[in-house]
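FAQ: What does the model actually see?

It sees only this:
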Amino acid sequence: MDITQKSGTATRKRSSRKGNSAPTIADVARAAHCSPMTVSRVINGEENVREATRAQVLDAIAKLNYIPNRAARSLAGGAQLRIALLFDNPSASYLSEFLMGALEEASRRDIHLVVQSCETVPESKELISKLVDGGIVGFILPPPLCDDQSVLDQIRASGGIAVAVGPGRASGSHGAVQIDEFQAAYDMTRHIIGLGHERIGFIIGNPEQVASGQRLEGFRAAMEEAGLTISDRLIAQGQFTYRSGMVAAEKLLAVDPPPTAIFASNDDMAAATVAMAHRRHLDVPNDITVCGFDDTELASSIWPELTTIRQPIREMTAQAVVMIAKAYRQKTPASKAKGEQVTMAYKLVRRNSDAGPSLASSFQRASEKQ
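And it is asked to produce this:
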């Protein structure tokens, strides 16, 4: 897939102003209570702006639907920044959130964004070279690409700017945006334990991704702290895909005695677990609690809606765009750039898929009849 987002290609709703003319940088400055020069600095990603002022300017830009004047920028000697978002992620829900965050921020900053699928290492090498030759200077790398050292090395060797979204084992990027995966999984496990569950199943994500291991460790730490037994029979391997969640859930639900709760490492696998429970005539959450991770659109589009960890995916991707713009404006050589690490807040969102194990006995009887 190759999607290109260019400023001005889509029809935008203009703010209601005299003569219905497009908003100007002066309009933004008035709305943000600052000077046009400050607005220009924010648009160009320069550092010498207070964060509170930067937030006011960005808010004014969004409310006015302001589009930077490219002709004026050209006269000032500027050039439109070109960024590529590479992806190889099996979750359509995660990818949708990821893509929207990047598109919205790129549009706001008049950045040319290319979105490109990249499924293999040999393919990535050829693709990165092609993109750099085409004027791409920044790369946004979600998992699992942020785990691939060869991808990071090639981008740096080409003089490009790479920002990882999510934890990765590869080193040498210009920055990373993530949440505390370990603590988030720990908190969700403590929540499930707090409901009264002791036999808790866990579905691991793709073993090639760092986040999978961190979430598993968070689960283990919470279980050990509570003095609960961690049975290997109640831990199943998944791949972050819906299909792998079905297979893993079927394995966990066949254990005797079965778990009274299952914590899946992402919403796709949690949704698959709910489907498998229904297939076995089990009610969620009365017979079994199911919780997920990410809070993608899928989490609130199934029934029951999932209790999950809200990872600010859109905001994380938008921040990656900001970081690339900042590094580009600083014009720091790729070989000397220091990686900026940004950790964002997550939130445990409770919906309808969890409850206490009050009906665990009925779950047990239902399982024994099959």
